[in-house]
């Protein structure tokens, strides 16, 4: 936390991203200068991929230009681009829905569990009863960095024969040794715990799948021949992005410690409040977008108090994908629970510049 103890009256920002400094990146830039390799799976990119494998415990890593592309490619690889329905939560960031459509699939929006804020196998199974044919895939979205229940979703896939893909955009530090054959897509955006500016990755224990998705990031070239064996595009990261990633990994242990202290500071102050954090936040996983769930009756008054106190807040996922004009016509189940829940999930100020006094000021506004 910041050492500044008194900023009374100054606005408190909701998020202040922090990437590695120029001096931290400089040694990696020198390596680029020496190799004169700038893209196309260069040495820094390969090293960063191997480091992500070690961090997450995933046997295979496909680096992508952003997290949305990771979801799109994973869905394309799993559904074989045959089209069809993809069951997914309405309560997620709109990037998830764009990725589903870009993969040639039609979103079918469903509710989420009000406690975990994630779709469950039971919710997906209920949605199956409303469909005439089996969906091509299910997209399970990690809520703000919380790890999904990988075992239950593997059982779901085995039972129904429907591929499951995880949109774990903010959960790259929450999935260690949990990644199996079902692809786990993460974001490396500047707003994430491990950020490189723009980037993403697909994690998987399936070596053939990783080979295919990696080829898809480079125009579908497989093997040493420059023949496009499968359909893909240019979804790679540059050596410069990998340089930022390697520097960010060096600083990650210290950053995680600081973020856990921040979450604990909030959790301690919220013990006697009605506002609640997500289950496991700070203990089991960390995030850069810390949310509270407010009682519905208190939302309007709380937002007024935050505004009066000069405290920024954010609905990181908005009010649901179905509320966006671009997706107003996609099929869905009844979303009355999402309509109630989404307005209650409020992103609080959360970054390393916060002081104890700042957190006191924020929490004083909460019910």
Folded structure, characterized:
It is a single chain. The two termini are 24 Å apart. The protein has 367 residues and is an alpha/beta fold. α1 (22-35) runs antiparallel to α8 (239-269), α2 packs parallel to α8 and α3 crosses α4 (94-102). β2 (85-89), α4 and β3 (106-110) form a beta-alpha-beta unit. The longest helix is centred in the C-terminal third of the chain and has 31 residues, at 239-269. It is globular, with a radius of gyration of 21 Å. The mean pLDDT is 96. The chain contains 11 helices and 9 strands. It folds into 2 domains: 22-246, Type I PLP-dependent aspartate aminotransferase-like (Major domain) (Aspartate Aminotransferase, domain 2, 3-Layer(aba) Sandwich), CATH 3.40.640; 252-363, Aspartate Aminotransferase, domain 1, CATH 3.90.1150.10. The chain has a 7-stranded mixed beta sheet, with helices on both faces. A two-stranded antiparallel sheet has the order 8-9. The modification N6-(pyridoxal phosphate)lysine is found at residue 192. The active site is at 192 (proton acceptor). One of its GO terms (biological process) is polysaccharide biosynthetic process. This is DegT/DnrJ/EryC1/StrS family aminotransferase. GO terms for molecular function: pyridoxal phosphate binding; transaminase activity.
Which topology of the largest domain does CATH recognise?
Aspartate Aminotransferase, domain 2
The CATH class name of the largest domain reads: Alpha Beta
The coarse overall form would be globular
Average pLDDT works out at 96
Q: Structurally, how many domains make up the residues?
A: 2
Show unreliable segments: none
**Rg over alpha carbons:** 21 Å
Instruction: Kindly state the percentage of residues in helix.
Output: 25-40%
**First-residue to last-residue Cα separation:** 24 Å
CATH architecture of the largest domain: 3-Layer(aba) Sandwich
């Amino acid at each position: 936390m910041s050492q500044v103890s008194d900023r009374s009256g100054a606005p408190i920002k909701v998020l202040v991203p922090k990437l590695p400094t120029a001096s931290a990146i400089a040694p990696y830039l020198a390596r680029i200068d020496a190799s004169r390799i700038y893209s196309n799976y260069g040495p820094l990119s390969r090293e960063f991929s191997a480091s992500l494998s070690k961090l997450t415990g995933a046997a295979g890593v496909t680096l992508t230009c952003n997290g949305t592309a990771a979801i799109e490619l994973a869905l394309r690889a799993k559904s074989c681009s045959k089209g069809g329905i993809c069951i997914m939560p309405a309560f997620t960031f709109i990037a998830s829905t764009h990725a589903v459509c870009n993969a040639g699939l039609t979103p079918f929006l469903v509710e989420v569990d009000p406690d975990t804020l994630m779709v469950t196998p039971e919710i997906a199974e209920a949605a199956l009863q409303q469909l005439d044919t089996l969906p091509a895939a299910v997209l399970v979205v990690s809520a703000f960095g919380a790890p999904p229940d990988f075992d239950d979703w593997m059982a779901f896939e085995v039972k129904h024969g429907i591929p499951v893909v995880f949109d774990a955009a903010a959960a790259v530090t929450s999935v260690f040794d949990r990644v199996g054959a079902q692809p786990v897509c993460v974001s490396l955006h500047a707003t994430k715990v491990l950020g490189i500016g723009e980037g993403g990755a697909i994690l998987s224990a399936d070596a053939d799948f990783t080979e295919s998705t990696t080829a898809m990031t480079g125009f579908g070239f497989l093997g040493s021949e420059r023949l496009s064996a499968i359909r893909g595009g240019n979804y790679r990261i540059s050596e410069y992005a990998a340089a930022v990633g390697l520097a960010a990994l060096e600083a990650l242990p210290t950053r995680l410690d600081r973020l856990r202290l921040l979450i604990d500071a909030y959790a301690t102050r919220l013990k006697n409040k009605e506002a609640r954090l997500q289950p496991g936040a700070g203990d089991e996983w960390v995030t850069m977008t810390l949310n509270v769930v407010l009682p519905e009756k208190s939302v309007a008054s709380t937002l007024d108090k935050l505004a009066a106190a000069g405290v920024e807040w954010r609905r990181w996922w908005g009010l649901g994908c179905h509320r966006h004009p671009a997706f107003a016509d996609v099929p869905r189940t009844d979303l009355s629970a999402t309509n109630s829940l989404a307005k209650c999930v409020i992103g609080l100020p959360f970054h390393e510049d916060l002081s104890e006094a700042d957190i006191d000021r924020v929490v004083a506004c909460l019910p």
